[in-house]
Specification:
- The strands form 4 sheets. The chain has a 4-stranded mixed β-sheet with strand order 1-2-7-4, with helices on both faces. The chain has a 3-stranded antiparallel β-sheet with strand order 3-11-8.
- The protein is globular, with a radius of gyration of 26 Å.
- It has helices at about 1-40, 50-55, 60-65, 70-80, 95-105, 130-140, 145-175, 180-200, 215-230, 235-250, 250-270, 295-325, 330-340, 350-355, 360-370, 405-410, 460-475, and strands at about 85, 90-95, 180, 380, 385-390, 390-395, 400, 475-480, 495, 495, 505-509.
- The chain is an alpha+beta fold.
- It has 17 helices and 11 strands.
- A hairpin with a 2-residue loop joins β5 and β6.
- The protein has a single domain, classed as Cytochrome p450 (Orthogonal Bundle).
- This is Cytochrome P450 monooxygenase-like protein.
Length: about 500
């Protein structure tokens, strides 16, 4: 009996092993066939690209989390051409025609859902809402970003620009080396402005002694969102990260929510006492959800706008200063324009008076071309029946997009694409225009995107950038504190570039 029992167990184990091996073989065959399909038979297989990226999202995810995915895209465009398959279901473009085909398509293409971070309170912002909800929310705020609104809001920008220069001078007088981190001070000014315009009041970071960590804190939020969105393609990793983040940051989120709620409630209670981002929604908050805007959506947007603007504007203005200080000729031309326009003192440098300065505007455009704060893709999803993009058919369900860094820095679109030449953005009649750039594809340059989801705050950004740059150039002689500052541009990005100190030696004019 003992022998029979033992023999029976051996037979059973052998049978189970054989069954397991057959199952493993079947799974291996299925995986192999799936990979072969993705590489050679998938509807996107006719598009060129690295095979490893075509069969798996893992290489893409690795570089997204690493913070350098656009550098990989650049290499791929060198090797494969203007359109590259960068994932089993995704294409990226550097052809100017792709801008209109993707971002002004009718009906509007939805954002890739995997690129959206779910709002913590369940209410969407302008950045996450889709379809009719996006149109409704954008419609509620649109008048706050008009030319008329900007004229009314200009005094707020100008007040903090004045405080920026005062804080710079205070830092300068307190530094024996005359070296100041202008990225930090610019960040304070930007945060004060966007808080005032959104909440009706600011935390006064420019007038607070000691270092503030607002920009860094918001950057960490962007970094988490990027990683979370990336891992959302690999469940359950996204849920694990999401809940860990919620637990670790619960106190900070509660504090942020309380702060946002209190300040927005005070702003709404003040009614039409001023012009800011909340003015158009006074008396129009409705919980019906099909018209107007809900209170939860107001709170979500109140925080989202501050996070986005404080980071992007700080990085862009700091980058413009970096490029000017690295290029003495361009700095001299910008300084001459500011000096010769007829300003009698710093208070004359306003939103309205800096708007018609062509070289200063060209400096800002060239900065956004070379080092846009958000260098990555703006992904959309092709409609069910597919569509034509840049003259070729793309099947429905495909993720499609333009990477700002890649389309802006390609030799196919711009001469000397990695060099700083604001002259390329001047009118040809301008004496400072350089005809060497006459063949540039300026239609490739779309720093605020296109269509119904273009950047609603572009005018506010440009106003801040012009006034800040003009006042800094007017008030100080500046030079980079480090002799070799070429590595400053070596920055990683998770949605936006990481904030990086820019040490500058200042001297009052």
């Amino acid at each position: 009996m003992a022998v029979e029992h033992t023999t029976s167990n051996v037979l059973d184990c052998s049978g189970n092993t054989s069954s397991i091996r057959q199952s493993e073989l079947s799974q291996s065959t299925t995986i192999f066939l799936r990979l072969a399909y993705l590489a050679f038979l998938h509807p996107l297989s006719k598009y060129p690209g690295p095979k490893l990226w075509a069969i798996s999202r893992i290489p893409w995810a690795y570089h997204v989390i690493k913070g350098d995915v656009w550098h990989s895209f650049d290499k791929f465009h060198d090797q494969y051409g203007p359109v590259v398959r960068i994932a089993p279901d995704e294409l990226t473009y550097i052809t100017p025609e792709a801008w209109k085909d993707i971002y002004t398509a009718k009906p509007d293409l939805n954002k890739d859902p995997y690129s959206l971070t779910p709002p913590l309170n369940g209410a969407n912002s302008l950045f996450t809402a889709l379809g009719d909800d996006h149109k409704r929310i954008r419609g509620a705020f649109i008048n706050a970003f008009s030319d008329k609104a900007l004229r009314e809001q200009s005094s707020i920008i100008e007040e903090y620009a004045q405080q920026l220069i005062q804080r710079m001078k205070a830092e300068l007088h307190g530094s024996p080396s005359q070296i100041v981190d202008i990225q930090r001070i610019i960040g304070y000014a930007v945060f004060d402005i966007i808080s005032d315009l959104t909440w009706g009041e600011s935390p006064g970071t420019l007038q607070t002694t000691g270092d503030q960590n607002w920009v860094t804190r918001f950057f960490l939020h962007a970094q988490f969102s990027t990683v979370r969105n990336c891992l959302s393609r690999f469940p359950p990793l996204d849920r694990i990260l999401y809940y860990v983040f919620l637990r670790v940051t619960s106190k900070q989120r509660i504090a942020n929510t309380k702060l946002t709620t209190e300040r927005i409630n005070r702003r709404l209670a003040a009614g039409h006492s001023r012009s800011d981002f909340m003015t158009p929604i006074i008396g129009k908050i409705s919980e019906k959800g099909h018209k107007g805007i809900t209170k939860s959506e107001v709170l979500t947007n109140g925080l989202a706008v501050i996070i986005a603007n404080s980071q992007l504007t700080t990085i862009a203005i700091t980058s413009a200063m970096y490029f000017l200080l690295r290029h003495p000729k361009q700095l001299r031309l910008a300084a001459e324009e500011v000096a010769n326009v007829g300003f009698h003192d710093e208070s004359d440098i306003k939103v309205a008076t800096t708007q018609p300065l062509p070289y200063l505007n060209a400096v800002i455009s060239e900065t956004l071309r070379l080092h846009h704060p958000t260098p990555g893709n703006l992904p959309r999803v092709a409609p069910k029946g597919g569509m034509m993009i840049a003259g070729r058919f793309v099947p429905g369900g495909s993720v499609i997009g333009v990477s700002l860094y890649n389309i802006h820095t390609r030799s196919e679109n711009f001469k000397a694409p990695l060099e700083f030449h604001p002259e390329r953005f001047l009118e040809k009649a301008d004496a400072r225009y350089d005809p060497a750039f006459q063949d540039d594809r300026l239609d490739a340059f779309q720093p605020f995107s296109m269509g119904q989801r273009n950047c609603i705050g572009s005018k506010i950004f440009l106003a801040e950038a012009r006034v800040f740059l003009a006042r800094l150039i007017w008030a100080f002689d500046m030079e980079l504190a480090e002799q070799d500052a070429s590595s400053w541009l070596d920055q990683k990005a998770w949605l936006v570039y990481e904030p990086k100190p820019l040490k500058v030696r200042l001297q009052e004019r």
